[in-house]
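tokens incoming
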């Protein structure tokens, strides 16, 4: 999963969760975890790529929550 694809996937999932009224810390965690797992699997487990993948995923989650109007302090 490319960086932009991962970010778009996270933002889309959070938008869907917001529309369904299901934005919880657990939902955010599961969304980010799944995106990171997919990206790591595609990078063939190269440990040096892990940190930027996680950083990008968390950044995308925060951006996604802000985009849908969720208070980040309450959900993350």
């Amino acid at each position: 999963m490319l960086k932009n694809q991962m970010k778009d996937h996270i933002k889309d999932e959070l938008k869907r969760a917001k529309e369904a009224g299901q934005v919880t810390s657990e939902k955010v965690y599961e969304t980010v975890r799944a995106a990171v797992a997919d990206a790591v699997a595609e990078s063939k487990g190269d440990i040096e790529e892990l940190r930027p993948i996680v950083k990008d995923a968390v950044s995308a989650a925060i951006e996604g929550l802000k985009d849908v109007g969720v208070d980040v302090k309450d959900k993350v």
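note: The helical segments are 3-19, 25-42, 47-67, 72-75.
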